[in-house]
Amino acid sequence: DAKTTQPPSMDCAEGRAANLPCNHSTISGNEYVYWYRQIHSQGPQYIIHGLKNNETNEMASLIITEDRKSSTLILPHATLRDTAVYYCIVRTNYNQGGKLIFGQGTELSVKP
Amino acid sequence: DTGVSQDPRHKITKRGQNVTFRCDPISEHNRLYWYRQTLGQGPEFLTYFQNEAQLEKSRLLSDRFSAERPKGSFSTLEIQRTEQGDSAMYLCASSLAGQTNQPQHFGDGTRLSIL
Fold first, then answer.
1. What angle do CA B99, B24, B13 make, to 5 degrees?
2. B26-60 residue pLDDT tens
3. How far apart are alpha carbons A67 and A70 in whole angstroms?
4. Count of alpha carbons within 13 Å of A15, Cβ hemisphere only?
5. Is the pLDDT of residue A6 over 80?
6. What are phi and psi for residue A17, nearest 5 degrees?
7. Residues B17, B113 contacting (CB under 8 angstroms)
8. What are the tens digits of pLDDT across the range A22-71?
9. Helix (H, G, I), strand (E, B) or coil at A81
10. Nearest C-alpha in A relative to B6
11. Distance CA B15, CA B106 (A)
């Protein structure tokens, strides 16, 4: 079973920041938080990952709480092309392959 | 573009036929994964290879399914005697094994429809 909980859907106005929450209260000390998104009819696209520090790249920022029980993915200026299903994943057993266990994700709709 | 490539993108076949899909990973990636995704659900793990060795198989991978990666480069996934329930998107991903967490990168999948 997935180790994360996400809201099933969210709306965001174009140009505004999209803040996608994720709960992972049972995360272990060496487990990373990964975010992927999937646009209709495409494969999942890697966005960002982190262990305990906040991370930023050209796509998004990842804020992880100090107790690591939750995180937030931030898309700073959402565009219509950011409409997708966003998956938050706790990746386990990296040295044994690190398969990804996807939940239902959050369906983000960016509206003009 | 040197991302993960999957072929074919779409496959329609009659129940009972055999089908084979191919995945070409990113060239230096030594780990390769297969996932299956049904409508409205997130992808589910099927199996993974490190180089040519198949190191883990999900219980979802019934006896009718077989995957190979003979030279540690491309991989094939074969389904024998297809059933209606096999209709899904089959996704391949690859990554680089190492001491730091390396993300998996996905192809755009093969959509299988069983008539």
1. 130
2. 998 999 999 999 999 999 999 999 999 999 999 88
3. 8
4. 1
5. yes
6. -75, 140
7. no
8. 999 999 888 899 999 999 889 999 999 999 989 999 999 999 999 999 99
9. helix
10. A43
11. 28
3-class SS at A101? Answer: coil
| Inter-chain residue contact B103 with A99, CB threshold 8 Å | no
Q: Tokens 């990168």 correspond to what residue?
A: B105
Q: What is the 3-state secondary structure (H, E, C) of chain B?
A: CCCCEEECCEEEECCCCCEEEEEECCCCCCEEEEEEECCCCCCEEEEEEECCEEEEECCCCCCCEEEECCCCCCEEEEECCCCHHHCEEEEEEEECCCCCCCCCEECCCEEEEEC
Which residues, including other chains, have CB under 8 Å from residue A67's CB and lie 6 or more apart?
A: none
When scoring A1, A30, A87, A102 by the number of chain B Cβ atoms within 10 A, the one with the most, hence best to mutate, is A102
